[in-house]
Amino acid sequence: MVAAAWPGVDPEWSREVEVLSTSGADEPGTVHRWHLLDNGAQLSRRGLVPQGTLLCVHGNPTWSYLWRTLLTAGSDPAHPWRVVAVDQLDMGYSARTGRFRRLADRINDLGDLTAALDLDGPVVTVGHDWGGVISLGWALAHPQQLAAVVLTNTAVHQPAGSAIPPALQLALHPAVHKWGTTTSDAFLRVTHSLADPPLPADIRKAYMAPYHGASRRTGVGNFVADIPVDASHPSFQALTGVSEGLRGLKVPALMLWGPRDPIFSDRYLKDLVGRLPHAQVHRFEGAGHIVAEDRDIAGPVFQWLAGHAGAGGSGAPEAASPGEARKDPAGATGFRPLWEMLEEQTAGIAGGDTAVAEMAADGTVARSLSWQQLDRSILDLAEGLQEAGVGSGSRVSLMVPPGVDLTVALYACLRVGAVVVVADAGLGTKGLSRAVKGATPDVIIGIDKALAAASVLGWPGRRISVQDLPAARRRILGVETSLAALARRGSDGSQVPPSGAPDPDAPAAVLFTSGSTGPAKGVLYTHRQLAAMRDTVAETFGIRSGSRLVAGFAPFALLGPALGAVSVTPDMDVTAPRTLTARALADAAAAIDATVVFASPAALRNVLATQDGLSEAGRQALGKVELLLSAGAPVPEPLLAEVQRLLPRASLHTPYGMTEALPVTDISLEQIQAADADAAAGTVPGAGNGVCVGTPVHGARVAVVPLAVDGTAPGTQPVTDAGVTGEILVSAPHVKEAYDRLWLTQTQSASIPGWHRTGDVGHFDAAGRLWVEGRLAHVVTAPAAAVTPVAAEQAIERLDSVRLAAIAGVGPAGTQAVVAVVETVPPVRKAGPAAPELAGRVRTAARDAGVDVSAVLAVPAQPTDIRHNAKIDRARLSRWASRVLAGGRPGKP
User: Fold this and answer.
1) 33 and 89 share a domain?
2) 566: in domain
3) 264 lies in a domain?
4) Shared domain check, 546 and 648
5) Rounded-to-integer distance, Cα 354 and Cα 830, Å
6) Claim to verify: residue 393 and residue 478 sit in the same structural domain
7) How far apart are CA 800 and CA 789, in angstroms?
8) Cα dihedral sign for 842, 846, 852, 854?
9) Burial of 486 (0-12, 13-18, 19+ CB in 10 A)
């Protein structure tokens, strides 16, 4: 044992201790030698008093080395914690006992060790793999010492009717087990290979070091053999004791999870969350089984500890969300359920009028429901869902295109207290699958295509089709029933219909972001926040009862009934906004005599491109529109000016917002033109250098936290001074409750109490208007200053030969070169350096906007997000540009 050869381990931490065993696996009086990594003596030598002890328990086939980053962090004088990372008996550098140690024995063993160490509270247990179960067993047996629990990928229960993971099935197979786990080192190597990025050679060597030779790997094989596959297994009772005991565990809990784990998948996380519903959870997208190697877990663990007095922290409460102030003591003052206006419309004189409709490809109305029919359909389905076991807290993933079926399903789920999960196909197959698995729905309601994907990709949840399916098709897709069947069951009156208002602060929806700046994030909304979104839209834009809305964007289609507005979905693929044609928009407008249109910038571009196909009747229908809303990405003034000619009576608005807060600010075309004029004239301080998005919407407050030279926004003081660039903050009743199972992301976004950090950067002008300059993640850190991208991009896009432009940084942070990547008109055939003449014009345009461009590259098409077809993936461009400028093959960005 040579501690100095273990990268990342201070040799002073390595120690051995003799422990008297009381386990039934040993003869009375047996003493075993344990190896630990323990920084306690080091802290004492430095005169540091620890705030508590982390008791870290590894799984199979790792050892205490797994926890070295926690030992390093716990040795920091700023937040000293004693960290005791154990090598379990027969594992690591602890003694080989020659005995088969069951789960109960190992829990008892850990208790023997802590007794020998005279370990007193507060103790926070930390566990991984089967070490998670053992640490929890110790926690349940030592309530007086226990302060909190931390878990990484583990499991305490095997769901009934489901097989254990295939990897463990293989490891347990009689023909493989002994050879794979003991005779050879295959089990170790396969486990280590799960790390992503791959473990460096010296780290792999350290993990392998205690297990050289079959005699050193007996514990590895026995650990695998002790997995309780069913109730007949000798360790099943002990595992059940732990799993059921967790339901009464009330101490703070943190779960840090790697979703790409072939062993402990998200279904085990879902089970743990059900047993410890108060736990804070963070899923590290892209991380896998050995999450402590894939991601930094030390930072989050100690940040979490600092917020929990019972775990030895300062006792300071965690940062309040921007919605904390909106919660009144009574819990419901002023709250009106999302469906209140729908009920009023049903009971009023408009009850027989059309409420929702969807268009067919031939320009006719494919389906429609009156207000009375819509209300009845919702209640019937709600009753059917209740009978099927869908109720309060059930997660229901809705994979149904916007239209009548989705509207009915959404409101029915909300009426029974279910949490709707909305992740659209615009995320792409990979992104959608990641989102659905992460949300772990109890039920998936979908069209055939979605249910087929659920079967192929292994999405969790019971499956319900939209329409009745043939028996053979139901079996293939694993479908239990259909919305149509549930509605028929509900209409027979056998169930009590849902009534009354929901708990305003109960979860209502998980809506996924577009994934344009990283993996899509689930955003959790309560009923109160959804109702506040409705009220904000109504007050800001005047959309109320009697309005008639063409919704080319799903959220607004679903808000229609909540606003008391007639809504119609045009014939288009809502997952690809640019599929909306002028004819389809006009047909939808004509069908309901529309007064309001919502369409994304990409959709508007295609509407303008296809307007020659409009009939005179279609132009007349569009001529009656009074309000156009377009959001999802910046909308250039020239584009709006063209749209104005097509919709001459409409007031054109481009609200700014995000999935976490929709909307935040609003501005009209006339106000955009006035702001641009102010910027050009230089008469209003702060005007210019970005996209003007106007002033806060009804009920919202907006501020910025100043940007530092290194491109970060480290401050905590919100300001609204003109010309100060910083990260944009928003506070409003309709701001999200939290990021779903992303505790660390949520903590960062709410680190300034009462505000949501948007991740966008911008500034105010002297007239109080907000100008957006880009994303914080896209700020280029050049040697002299931090460069925000939007102003230069806008200047470049004014060139006749440029359709879209993006500014990206190349090189190390702080010394980055500014690169402009342009999509030309007509498009270039191959990506690569731009022609000299074009490059010169681009550099001049950027310089006029205050940005010096080092290189100009041209691409046939910019890489944009799928949902909006407008948000350019600048991070991807930066990686591509780095490769090209280093002499690599351009290829496709």
Assistant:
1) yes
2) yes
3) yes
4) yes
5) 51
6) yes
7) 20
8) negative
9) buried
Amino acid at 809: G
CA 254 → CA 82, 330, 521, 704, 744, distances in Å? 18, 30, 19, 31, 10
725 and 798 fall within a common domain:
no
CA distance 455 to 441: 14
What span, in angstroms and rounded, lies between the C-alpha atoms of 878 and 843? 18
Is the domain of 18 the same as that of 125?
yes
- CATH number at 557 reads 3.40.50.980
Give domain status of residue 527, yes or no.
Answer: no
Query: Using CA atoms, how far apart are residues 269 and 439, in angstroms rounded to an integer?
Result: 10
Say if strands 566-569 and 548-551 run parallel, antiparallel, or are unpaired.
parallel
- For 871, the token pair is 């948000």
Q: Answer yes or no: do 821 and 881 share one domain.
A: yes
Instruction: Encode 302-312: b = buried (16+ Cβ within 10 Å), e = exposed.
Output: bbbbbbbebbb
410-438 CB burial, b ≥16 within 10 A, e <16: bbbbbbbbbbbbbbbbbbeeebbbbbbbb
Q: Using CA atoms in the order 528, 533, 534, 536, what is the torsion angle rounded to 10 degrees?
A: 120
| Cα 123 to Cα 39: distance, rounded to the nearest angstrom | 15
* CA–CA gap between residue 152 and residue 269 (Å, rounded): 10
Do 555 and 450 belong together in one domain?
A: no
- C-alpha–C-alpha distance, residues 176 and 193, integer Å: 19
State how far the Cα of 740 lies from the Cα of 281, in Å rounded to an integer: 8
pLDDT value, residue 866: 47
What pLDDT does 255 receive? Answer: 98
Domain count, the chain: 6
Domain final position from 776, 800, 828: 776
The structure tokens listed for 267 are: 């279904």
Residue 139 sits at the vertex; the CA angle it makes with 133 and 141, to the nearest 5 degrees, is: 105
Residues of the chain scoring pLDDT < 50:
313-320, 324-332, 866-869
DSSP letter, residue 179: I
Structural domain boundaries, residue 825: 780-885
Residue 832 lies inside a defined structural domain of this protein: yes
Tokens of 833: 């350096």
- Distance separating alpha carbons of residues 162 and 68, to the nearest angstrom: 35
What tokens were used for 628? 């156009």
Report how far residue 17's alpha carbon sits from residue 31's, in angstroms, rounded to the nearest whole number. Answer: 10
Residues in the chain: 893
Question: Both tokens of residue 155?
Answer: 């499991």
Pair type for strands 786-787 and 817-824: unpaired
The CA distance from 751 to 756, in Å, is 8
Q: Are the C-beta atoms of 18 and 99 separated by less than 8 Å?
A: no
At 285-299, the pLDDT tens digits run 999 999 999 999 999
Q: C-alpha distances in angstroms, 324 versus 309, 333, 385, 738?
A: 21, 14, 32, 11
**Which amino acid is located at 159 in the chain?**
P
The Cα–Cα gap between 298 and 302 comes to 6
Q: Quick one: 151 exposed, middle or buried, by C-beta within 10 A (0-12, 13-18, 19+)?
A: buried
What token pair was written down for 30?
A: 């047996």
Report d(CA 577, CA 602) in Å as an integer: 6
